[in-house]
Amino acid sequence: MAFRFLRSFVRTYLTMTRRELRGNIILLCILTIQILIVLFTHNRRSDLQDDEPTGDELLSSTPQQSDERSVNLSQIKDLAVSDDESSIKINPVLNSFDPNSIEEQQWIKMGVPVYIAQRIIKYLSKGGKFSEKSDLMKIYGFRSSDYQRLEPYIFIHTSSSPIYKWDKPELNDARPLVELNSATQLELEKLPQIGPKRAQRIIKYRSLLGGFYNLEQLLEVYGMDSTVFLLIKPMIRVDTTTITPIHINPTIRDSLYHPYLKFKIINRLRAYQQSHGPFTDLASVCRAGLLNEDLCTKIAPYLKLD
Predict the structure, then answer these.
(1) CA 37, 42, 43 angle in degrees (round to 5)?
(2) Are the CB atoms for 280 and 306 separated by under 8 Å?
(3) d(Cα 143, Cα 85) in Å, to the nearest integer?
(4) How far is CA 94 from CA 106, 108, 235, in A?
């Protein structure tokens, strides 16, 4: 009876199918591999600890052995130092320098962190310039301690020579100024920093406006920056008598386009004219178009009431 019960118990609870047997074997293999990994790493750590000298060994070691250990420890510590800290730990080489002309490696040699040196070079490459010593502190992240250390060695060259060098006649010669409203593309290209693309843009914008009435309108040309404008300003002039006027009363009935007048402004002017008749003065135009004072002043040279 007991034997029959035991046999039934084994068949019910301890018998495994082929799939279950296969799964148990795989699980056993995984557990065995994990145990071997743990044993291997434990033995490895034990070996490393055995290699470390004890206090007595350090005291009994020869000076040469002690020096070798100290050198190895210092090398490990050097590897753990970050980039920023390593730039501080090196012995900086300090000489007089102009911050506008030195390269990234020279900044690093003077003890400036690498990322700060890169920011300075990027700032200069985009047209930035240090006019005073204190301008260095405008660089984001530049430390005051570095500035105080470098300040006695900073020497900014102040030359009267122009920033740009051109193989063209000086301004004191007798050449005539370029008149913007009548200049051809070739005449515009003779100006510094005005190539074919910029010359074409100036001419295109001039035709859209109907002509320039002041020099500052060049800054509205796409791609024209203030640096180039200030450079060519002494070489150009504007003849306002050649401006093409906008005959506001007949034009508003037909078609009107101007860079200063948006479509909704033109619709207001057209609706006002249909209700009140022709415009008689500039003030009525500004009121009808809901123009602010600046826009009214800008558009006034082009408007002709007739």
Answers:
(1) 100
(2) no
(3) 13
(4) 10, 11, 43
What would the pLDDT profile of 40-77 be if each residue is shown by its tens digit? 887 666 555 555 455 444 444 444 454 444 445 444 44
Q: Find out whether 303 and 283 touch, Cβ atoms under 8 Å.
A: no
Query: In which element (H, E) is residue 246 found?
Result: strand 246-247
Angle at 196 between CA 192 and CA 200, to 5 degrees: 110
Q: What is the pLDDT of residues 70-104, one digit of tens each?
A: 445 444 444 444 444 444 445 676 777 888 888 88
Give the CATH number of domain 178-242: 1.10.150.320
Query: Is the CA virtual torsion 45, 50, 56, 57 positive or negative?
Result: negative
Is residue 213 within 8 Å of 243, Cβ to Cβ? yes
Helix locations, the chain, DSSP H = 2-9, 18-51, 55-60, 63-80, 83-89, 104-109, 114-125, 144-150, 185-189, 196-209, 226-232, 248-253, 263-276, 282-288, 293-299
Which of 280-288's residues contact partners 24+ apart within 8 Å by CB, and which partners? 280/305, 281/305, 285/248
Q: Which residues of 198-234 are buried (b: 16+ CB within 10 A; e: fewer)?
A: bbebbbebbeebbbbbeeebbeebeebeeebbebbee
Q: Does residue 92 contact residue 117 with C-beta atoms inside 8 Å?
A: no
Domain map of the chain by residue range? 83-88+95-153, 178-242, 246-304
Alpha-carbon span 13 to 130, nearest angstrom: 86
Q: Which two tokens stand for residue 255?
A: 């078609």
What backbone torsions phi and psi does residue 236 show, to the nearest 5 degrees?
-130, 160
Identify whether the C-beta of residue 263 lies closer than 8 Å to the C-beta of residue 206.
Answer: no
Contact between residue 252 and residue 270 where contact means Cβ atoms under 8 Å apart: yes
